[in-house]
Amino acid sequence: MNVPLPAARLLVRRAVKPVLGTRLTPVRQRQMINALMRIAFLPRGTLAERTMLGGVPTERLTTPASDPARALLYLHGGAYLVGSPTTHRAMAAHLSHAIGAIGHVLDYRLAPEHPYPAAVDDAIAAYRALLDKGLEPGQVVVAGDSAGGGLALALALRARAEGLPQPAGLGLVSPWVDLRLGGLDESIDDPLLSRGWLELGAVSYAGQDVVRPEVSPLLADLTGLAPMFVHAASQEMFVDDVERFVEAARAAGVEVTYERLGGHWHVTHLFAGMVREATGVVNQMGGWLRGALDRATDQPGDQAGDQA
Questions:
Q1: pLDDT at position 305, please?
Q2: Which of 84, 192, 287, 293 is least crowded, fewest Cβ atoms below 10 Å from its Cβ?
Q3: Predicted pLDDT of residue 297
Q4: Which of 49, 38, 117, 107 has its CA nearest to residue 78?
Q5: How many Å is the Cα radius of gyration of the chain?
Q6: Per residue in 73-85, pLDDT tens?
Q7: Span 187-203, mean pLDDT?
Q8: Is 140:71 a contact under the CB 8 Å cutoff?
Q9: 3 state DSSP class of 95
Q10: DSSP symbol at 218
Q11: Could you tell me if 172 and 229 are in contact, meaning their C-beta atoms sit under 8 angstroms apart?
Q12: Residue 97 among the catalytic residues
């Protein structure tokens, strides 16, 4: 299937953006977004199974390319308010297929019912569970989009604080790195995001704790974190914050590969399997993460295996 990129943008603006605001409760937003995103075009032969990982509900995705010795832990976006394995199944399945890994899409607890640190606690529990199953850190990559990208960074920060090794790599799609919201570019005609919805997510998730490093990783000491592949889009309010984060990570000595996607909006990747350009950028990230796993396997003494 190939839906033109402009048609997908119009669909997002007309059907998705009106749901994500302050008019509907988060519970109702979740119901509607799950319904809108239920149709997914997955790699042929993909098997999706509901399971648990570290005590957290998870969807396990196995594609014909999945190697049981490689794992992707995927953390979905949604301003910490919405999102689920259902909404992110297509993106995570295509990413798992491109990496050649088994995907684990975490159904972590959401705000406002479960504010910070619930999501971080769930993410680190899932990461620990993968290691407890016998995988080496160099056999695991962690990825996430938007709030899930911020959560992937929070996981890396928590792992460092608790003496756990870093994963082989982090894949970050337009990560939400500053819940203070002072760096949003509101001059951009963003077809998906609105300031009101982001404010609701920030307050519901973090309250007055928006300056905590695990909440706003732009404010964290990023030294020693895993190599990162980062995407941001030219047509999203987050782009300046993401680029400030990339600069901060590089200044801290982190290996960062970054690309600003012209003509894309916030997490176009969700249309993988449906929109050619979305599938392409997911495959690009997947190729980089596959390479990170290859490098970790080839060099068992590198950061993925030895950091604590």
A1: 37
A2: 287
A3: 84
A4: 107
A5: 17
A6: 999 999 999 999 9
A7: 97
A8: yes
A9: helix
A10: G
A11: yes
A12: no
Which pair of tokens denotes residue 92?
């995570």
What's at 204, amino acid-wise? Answer: S
Report which of 147, 167, 46 is spatially closest to residue 96, judged by C-alpha positions.
Answer: 46
Is the bond preceding residue 117 a cis peptide, omega within 30 degrees?
A: yes
pLDDT in tens, 246-260: 999 999 999 999 999
- Residue 104 annotated among the catalytic residues of the structure: no
Residue in 146, 174, 204, 216 annotated catalytic: 146
Give the active site residue among 66, 97, 174, 236.
236
Burial zone of 94 (CB within 10 Å; 0-12 exposed, 13-18 middle, 19+ buried): buried
**What percentage of the chain reaches a pLDDT higher than 70?**
97
> Nearest to residue 268, comparing CAs of 282, 257, 258, 256?
282
The CA distances from residue 241 to 89, 176, 213, 256, 272, in Å, are 27, 8, 15, 15, 25
Reported as a pLDDT band with limits 50, 70 and 90, residue 52 is: very high
CATH domain 5-298 topology = Rossmann fold (3.40.50)
Catalytic residue among 66, 266, 269, 277: 266
Spatial separation of the C-alpha atoms in residues 74 and 85, rounded to whole Å: 9
Q: Which residue has the tokens 């003494």?
A: 301
Digit-coded pLDDT (tens) for 96-141: 999 999 999 999 999 999 999 999 999 999 999 999 999 999 999 9
Instruction: Give backbone dihedrals phi and psi of 26, rounded to 5 degrees, phi first.
Output: -55, -35
Beta strands per DSSP E along 174-250 = 228-235
Written as six digits, the tokens of 122 are: 């769930």
